[in-house]
Amino acid sequence: MPRRRSTVAIKYIIDREDAQGEQGFIAEIETLSSCKHANIVSLLGFCHEHPHMILIYEFVSNGSLDDYLGTKGKMTNLTWVQ
């Protein structure tokens, strides 16, 4: 059976002396592991071999949420329906 190839997004988290990077890393794994929704990017895997902290997500080609909400200079107001 042929292997299925997928494009993934990889996030590398820099290890910090104050442990905030590791706390955020663990929190992101816990949150994304418990959320299953069509509009939330899936966490496919991770690597936690000190000092490396890597998250592997499904790749979404439509951009990120902040692309749709805008930036500080260009805010977009959305209704609940949108």
TrEMBL record:
Residue ranges constituting the Protein kinase domain according to the UniProt record: 1-82
Highest taxon, organism lineage: Eukaryota
GO molecular-function terms, A-Z: ATP binding; transmembrane receptor protein tyrosine kinase activity
Lineage, uppermost ranks: Eukaryota, Viridiplantae, Streptophyta, Embryophyta, Tracheophyta
SUPFAM superfamilies: Protein kinase-like (PK-like)
Pfam family of the protein (one): PK_Tyr_Ser-Thr
Full protein name: Protein kinase domain-containing protein
Keywords (A to Z) from UniProt: Transferase
Key word NADP present: no
InterPro entries: ANXUR1/2-like, Kinase-like_dom_sf, Prot_kinase_dom, Ser-Thr/Tyr_kinase_cat_dom
Species: Helianthus annuus (Common sunflower)
